[in-house]
Amino acid sequence: MSNQPVPKTIAMVGPMGSGKTKIGRRLARDLDRPFIDTDQRIVAEHGEIAGIFERVGEAGFRAIEREVVAQALTEPAVVSLGGGSVLDADTRATLRDLPTIYLTVSERVVRGRLRGGKRPLVQNDPDAWLRIFTERRALYEEVASVRFDTSAGHITALGGKIAAWAKENS
Ligand SMILES: Nc1ncnc2c1ncn2[C@@H]1O[C@H](COP(=O)(O)OP(=O)(O)OP(=O)(O)O)[C@@H](O)[C@H]1O
Ligand SMILES: O=C(O)C1=C[C@@H](O)[C@@H](O)[C@H](O)C1
Ligand SMILES: [Mg+2]
């Protein structure tokens, strides 16, 4: 039997469009770990997110999300969480014990990133992103081990900085 410690989950949190999926996938590749995106797992198991909101409302979506996130955070992977996962107190308690990378983005930059109909909470409401982010900002800060802003600069350079931090802290 090996005495190697099991690597901890590395979690990525932040508001919609901050880059959790994009950066998380690159980080997993850099660290040679599996990549899990909880939104993608939910879609694979329950269908498109907008459809889930239509069928069971936001509360129903959050119940599904809580289960999927709890499972994912037990896996030795890079795990990108849905933007609203931090609303759940149990999820936050788990995240506080893990290396948790908090990604931010400015409102000006995110406007160009959120096109398309996949995010029901910001669809048809240009001010929703900032309102939701403002409500949740303290929750992201509560769980964050470190913060990186994705608004400016080259994604490769940013990915390198994040990978260096993750190698030191996981
Ligand atoms: N420097 C950057 N870092 C991260 N993403 C970037 C960057 N520049 C552009 N993007 C683009 O921003 C878009 C949003 O990123 P992504 O889907 O990873 O966000 P997210 O945080 O996973 O959002 P959600 O919570 O809605 O799933 C993507 O199309 C991505 O290619
Ligand atoms: O911030 C949110 O509440 C959400 C973010 C996305 O990742 C999805 O989980 C969903 O669109 C809800
Ligand atoms: Mg995503």
Automatic annotation (TrEMBL):
One of its GO terms (molecular function) is shikimate kinase activity. PROSITE patterns: SHIKIMATE_KINASE. Its main location: cytoplasm. Binds 1 Mg(2+) ion per subunit. It is found in: Cytoplasm. Its EC number is 2.7.1.71. It catalyses: shikimate + ATP = 3-phosphoshikimate + ADP + H(+). Keywords: Amino-acid biosynthesis, Aromatic amino acid biosynthesis, ATP-binding, Cytoplasm, Kinase, Magnesium, Metal-binding, Nucleotide-binding, Transferase. Mg(2+) binds at T21. Pathway: Metabolic intermediate biosynthesis; chorismate biosynthesis; chorismate from D-erythrose 4-phosphate and phosphoenolpyruvate: step 5/7. ATP binds at G17, S18, G19, K20, T21, K22, R119. Substrate binds at D39, R62, G83, R136. Its cofactor is Mg(2+). It holds the Pfam family SKI. Belongs to the shikimate kinase family. Catalyzes the specific phosphorylation of the 3-hydroxyl group of shikimic acid using ATP as a cosubstrate. Monomer. This is Shikimate kinase. The gene is aroK.
